[in-house]
């Protein structure tokens, strides 16, 4: 599951998009399947899936272990705000598609519950030549859902798809670092890198595609986009667009047959409606919005019937400036805006305290996180001072600053459907007004947002989110070479030292060495404020209490999804299980 | 003399209609509230206070607070301003365009009539609300754009009314008299015909205000109308929808405001129509 790409989190509620490069997280709502989305994706979401910390789900563990034996059967229904776009994971960058694809496909490796790399389709691997060569020994007992055996040719095919410039994938970059890929025998695959590449191993968490079905065909026109065939723990059954996606357990799965027979992904594009469905029993699993977590799930009935969880999500939300705009080129202006925003107020008001202040692109429990960077304590006076220094003065006494006769006015863009972002924008608007800056808010539907504003760079400031992959490599988001229309450095941040550190950080396997690079990068970000890093929200999944063996770990709750079960006497959808 | 009797009768009729009077009172009250909004509302409607999120109605906050701790009463009061503004400007645009095109069509007839009335037919074929949605989605959503768009999509009714009136008026003696002394067309239309054709326009405008307020609320509810932080009844309702289980007051009060306002305009409009239309006049 790593793979190092980025999805944009867009909104918390509502979502969906079909864009190749940026993808978002329907977050709040689409609970928590995959362990982590490893690709960096734009998050649409607010609260988000994956990645755990504490368990507020009270009696979860005891209850699940004391009573009753694991049993096969039953179905789980997860609610999601957005529909999937394409079930070939290489071609989709939205989190809904990846969530389904992660169950249907498997990679060579993945992160385990403690975020350590472990084998999936690769039984083991040898690293040689100072990390330049990785030899994967593949499992011999794996077959595709259509019965054909899985071999090294499939891996080779997937690699070729990823490096083919015609493949519309956002995730090709890591594979272009490979100098040579070879199939040594039916179950041995070797890659050789040009130079040391730290995210190399985990990039092979990308879902492996069936070469016998795709070889020689145009992948963009493949029927697998809607009828995927993989090696994963669940088989695809049906997809009703905008309604639901149904998967069935793979009885021959090499890690053991999943206990839950059926996985249903229901699309409900409104968080309040989804919560009503949850209470009515129409869905079993969703991500809660902060208000739902704090005020609507605290009664005895909910506590008895559901387990809820809370942990820091792998995502952060930021206010990004278009650095091509001459006003935002001045560092003092960006710093002033940071001072003018009260981040704690946003966390209290929008997240109801369910989150922490972000100081950079990592979250506090990662090894790459630097706790000692410059912080911007809320101070309207300091903001005004800096703005004055930068030449912005209130000359006509209307409360709005001017420079060369032009008022300081700009528009914050954000995507529709993410209530948390809309509210944050309003709080920021208010605070900046106090500092003498007039802000307009414009809320745009997600796919138009990406196509017409992000791609074309036609924005002044945006509120968006990124997910945070466990590997700290941020080359794709911050390197000055990544400013093309479909690339992810959409604020056009260019800093020679950061460029150097990014290359250095991914080019060594020594964690201490890497840590130094990323610590320094965070110091630069803190000083430069290309984004105002706002907050890291908590993920707030809630699951029906009949599902047992859910054990939160650093990777979230869904890493052991195939081990979840419902005791025989509590099974709800019995008729489904022959 | 004749004119004065018309208005005296009109007032008498209108006053006898209790519902119309109630509607009139509501409309007047709205004007007062809008005009004195800063004095009536106890708080700044845009003041965010994260310590007072979603408080139920109390003596401090008459209508409770919203999801950012803003006072709902103040927001509803200021929302009245937006509604009135949108209602009147939109209807103003519709009336001006409708009267202009309707007069030309009715007075000149023939080709002008055909072209304008077929254009009206085309406009009527579009489902108005979706046309507005499409236009607002292309333009940047703002109060000004909404007023213009609503205005430019709702003039067809007025145009048809005016045309019909003019068709029946233009062959009347006083028009012939004006023509015979050499008055030009503009003078005839503006001085002689239009004043006599305005009664149905007045009715349609009053009802039109109610329609425009509803459309504005619907657009704001969908998030493409009045943009935050400006309060409008529609966007207060949106937060009401998002928090419907937690905060009934967020849906109830702006909803009531819309209901009462639209009802008021409709009652008044119907009252005016009854008072003007001699056939409906009771003895």
UniProtKB/TrEMBL annotation, chain B:
Transport as a keyword?
yes
Any Gene Ontology CC annotation: plasma membrane
Coiled-coil residues = none
Checking InterPro entries in the record gives:
BP-dependent_transpt_permease, MetI-like, MetI-like_sf, Oligopeptide_permease_AppC, OppC_N
Q: Classify the main location.
A: membrane
> What kind of membrane protein is this, topologically?
Multi-pass membrane protein
Q: Enumerate the subcellular locations listed in this protein's record, separating them with semicolons.
A: Cell membrane
Q: Could you tell me the Gene Ontology terms of the biological process aspect for this record?
A: transmembrane transport
Indicate what this protein is called per its UniProt record: Peptide ABC transporter permease
């Amino acid at each position: 599951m790593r793979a190092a790409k980025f999805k944009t989190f867009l909104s918390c509620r509502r979502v969906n998009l079909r864009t190749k490069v940026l993808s978002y997280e329907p977050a709040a709502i689409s609970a928590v399947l995959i362990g982590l989305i490893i690709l960096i994706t734009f998050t649409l979401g607010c609260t988000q899936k994956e990645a755990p910390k504490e368990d507020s789900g009270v009696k979860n563990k005891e209850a699940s272990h004391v009573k009753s034996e694991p049993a096969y059967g039953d179905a789980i229904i997860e609610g999601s705000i957005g529909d999937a776009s394409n079930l070939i994971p290489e071609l989709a960058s939205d989190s809904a598609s990846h969530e389904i694809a992660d169950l249907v496909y498997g990679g060579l490796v993945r992160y385990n519950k403690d975020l350590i790399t472990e084998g999936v389709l690769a039984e083991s691997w040898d690293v040689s030549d100072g990390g330049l060569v990785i030899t994967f020994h593949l499992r011999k007992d794996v077959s595709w859902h259509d019965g054909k055996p899985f071999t090294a040719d499939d891996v080779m095919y997937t690699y070729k798809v990823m490096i083919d410039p015609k493949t519309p994938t956002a995730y090709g970059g890591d594979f272009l670092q490979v100098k040579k890929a070879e199939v040594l025998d039916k179950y041995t695959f070797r890659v050789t890198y040009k130079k040391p590449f730290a995210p190399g191993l985990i990039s092979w968490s990308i879902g492996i595609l069936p070469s016998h079905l795709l070889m020689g065909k145009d992948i963009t026109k493949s029927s697998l986009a809607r009828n995927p065939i993989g090696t994963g723990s669940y088989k695809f059954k049906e997809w009703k667009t905008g309604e639901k996606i149904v998967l069935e357990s793979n009885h021959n799965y090499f890690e053991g047959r999943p206990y839950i027979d059926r996985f249903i992904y229901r699309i409900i594009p409104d968080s309040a409606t989804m919560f009503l469905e949850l209470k009515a029993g129409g869905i079993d699993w969703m991500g809660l919005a902060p208000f739902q977590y704090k005020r609507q799930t605290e009664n005895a009935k909910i506590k008895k019937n559901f387990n809820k969880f809370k942990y820091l999500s792998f995502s952060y939300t930021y206010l990004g400036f278009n650095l091509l705009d001459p006003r935002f080129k001045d560092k003092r202006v960006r710093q002033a805006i940071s001072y003018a925003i009260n981040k704690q107020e946003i966390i209290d008001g929008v997240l109801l305290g369910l989150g922490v202040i972000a100081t950079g692109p990592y979250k506090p429990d990662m090894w790459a996180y630097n706790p000692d960077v410059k912080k911007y304590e809320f101070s309207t006076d300091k903001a005004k001072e800096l703005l004055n220094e930068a030449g912005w003065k209130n000359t006509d006494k209307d409360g709005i600053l001017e420079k060369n006769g032009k008022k300081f006015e700009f528009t914050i863009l954000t995507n529709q459907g993410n209530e948390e972002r809309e509210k944050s924008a309003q709080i920021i608007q208010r605070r900046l007004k106090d500092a003498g800056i007039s802000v307009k808010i414009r809320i745009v539907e997600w796919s138009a947002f990406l196509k017409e504003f992000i791609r074309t760079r036609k924005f002044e400031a945006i509120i968006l989110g990124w997910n945070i992959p466990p590997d700290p490599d941020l080359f794709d988001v911050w390197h000055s070479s990544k400013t093309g229309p479909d690339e992810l450095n959409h604020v056009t941040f260019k800093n020679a030292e950061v460029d150097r550190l990014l290359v250095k950080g991914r080019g060594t396997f020594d964690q201490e060495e890497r840590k130094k690079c990323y610590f320094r990068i965070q110091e630069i970000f803190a000083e430069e404020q290309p984004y105002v890093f706002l907050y890291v929200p908590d993920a707030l999944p809630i699951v029906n209490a009949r599902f047992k063996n859910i054990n939160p770990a650093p990777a979230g709750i869904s890493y052991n999804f195939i081990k979840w079960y419902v005791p025989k006497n509590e099974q709800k959808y019995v008729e489904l299980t022959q | 003399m004749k004119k004065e009797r018309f208005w005296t009768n009109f007032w008498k009729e209108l006053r006898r209609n209790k519902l119309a009077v109630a509607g009139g009172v509501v409309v007047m009250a709205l004007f007062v509230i809008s005009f004195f909004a800063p004095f009536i509302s106890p708080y700044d409607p845009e003041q965010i206070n994260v310590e007072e999120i979603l408080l139920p109605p109390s003596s401090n906050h008459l209508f409770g607070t919203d999801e950012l701790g803003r006072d709902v009463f103040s927001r509803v009061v200021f929302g009245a301003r937006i509604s009135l503004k949108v209602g009147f400007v939109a209807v103003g645009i519709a009336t001006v365009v409708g009267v202009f095109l309707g007069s030309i069509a009715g007075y000149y007839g023939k080709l002008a009539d055909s072209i304008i009335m077929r254009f009206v037919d085309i406009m009527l074929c579009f489902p108005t609300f979706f046309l507005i949605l499409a236009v607002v989605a292309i333009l940047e959503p703002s109060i000004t754009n909404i007023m213009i768009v609503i205005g430019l999509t709702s003039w067809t009714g007025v145009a048809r009314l005016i045309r019909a009136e003019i068709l029946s008026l233009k062959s009347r003696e006083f028009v012939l008299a004006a023509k015979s002394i050499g008055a030009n067309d503009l003078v005839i239309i503006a001085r002689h015909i239009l004043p006599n054709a305005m009664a149905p326009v007045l009715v349609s405008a009053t009802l039109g205000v109610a329609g425009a307020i509803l459309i504005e609320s619907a657009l704001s509810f969908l998030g493409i109308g009045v943009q935050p932080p400006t309060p409008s009844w529609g966007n207060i309702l949106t937060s009401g929808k998002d928090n419907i289980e937690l905060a009934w007051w967020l849906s109830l009060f702006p909803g009531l405001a819309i209901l009462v306002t639209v009802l008021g305009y409709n009652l008044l409009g119907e009252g005016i129509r009854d008072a003007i239309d001699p056939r409906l006049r009771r003895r």
